[in-house]
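About this split. The held-out portion is used to measure sequence recovery: a designer receives only the C-alpha cells and must propose an amino acid at every position. Recovery is the fraction of positions where the proposal matches the reference. Here is one held-out target exactly as it appears in the evaluation file.
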C-alpha cells in the first residue's frame, strides 16, 4: 500500500467511525444507520435512518419498520438537495451497505464513491452500484483493523459470501 492509499484508508476509517456515532441519533430500535456525504474533504451532508420531519420518532411497528421510514442515505441525499451544495462527485460513507432504493438515489445524485462498514441483509444495492461504475469500498473490520475491499461486478457476490461465512464462524 503506497502513501496515498494509506492516507485514503485513514480518512475512510475516520469518516466511517463518524457515521457510527451519527447513527446514534436514530430512534430506530432494530438498526441504527448513519451516513455522511463528503466532498473535497468536507462533510456536506449527513443523515440517519428515521421518520420524515413532523412524524413521531417511532420507526417500528412490531417486528417491521414502518413503510415511511427513511434510510440514512436518503436523508443525507435529500438534505444536500435542499442546500447550496452538490453531491456530484462526492463520497458517501454509510454504516450499512445501501439497499436497492438508496442505490438508485446514489446513482442519480452523482455520488462517485461509496464506503460502507457492514452488509445489509441483501447485497443487490451494492451490485447495482458496481454495475453503474461507482467505486464501492467495504471497510471490513477484522481483528481491530480496517481492511478495504474494492468491490466490482465480478467480486461482489463472492465477497458477500466470504463475509457471511466469516460472521457465521465468529458467532459460534
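Reference sequence for scoring:
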Amino acid at each position: 500500500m503506497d502513501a496515498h492509499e494509506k492516507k485514503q484508508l485513514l480518512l475512510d476509517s475516520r469518516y466511517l467511525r463518524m457515521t457510527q456515532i451519527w447513527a446514534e441519533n436514530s430512534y430506530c430500535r432494530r438498526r441504527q444507520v448513519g451516513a455522511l456525504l463528503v466532498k473535497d474533504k468536507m462533510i456536506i451532508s449527513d443523515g440517519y435512518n428515521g421518520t420524515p420531519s413532523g412524524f413521531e420518532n417511532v420507526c417500528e411497528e412490531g417486528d417491521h419498520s414502518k413503510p415511511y421510514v427513511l434510510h440514512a442515505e436518503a436523508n443525507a441525499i435529500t438534505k444536500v438537495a435542499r442546500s447550496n451544495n452538490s453531491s456530484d462527485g462526492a463520497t458517501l460513507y454509510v454504516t450499512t451497505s445501501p439497499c436497492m432504493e438508496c442505490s438508485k438515489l446514489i446513482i442519480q445524485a452523482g455520488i462517485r464513491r461509496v464506503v460502507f462498514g457492514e452488509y445489509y441483509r441483501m447485497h443487490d444495492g451494492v451490485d447495482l452500484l458496481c454495475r453503474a461504475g461507482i467505486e464501492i469500498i467495504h471497510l471490513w473490520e477484522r481483528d481491530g483493523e480496517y481492511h478495504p475491499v474494492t468491490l466490482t461486478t465480478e467480486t461482489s457476490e463472492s465477497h458477500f459470501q466470504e463475509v457471511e461465512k466469516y460472521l457465521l464462524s465468529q458467532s459460534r
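Annotator remark: Strands lie at 34-39, 42-48, 60-61, 64-65, 91-96, 113-118, 135-142, 145-151.
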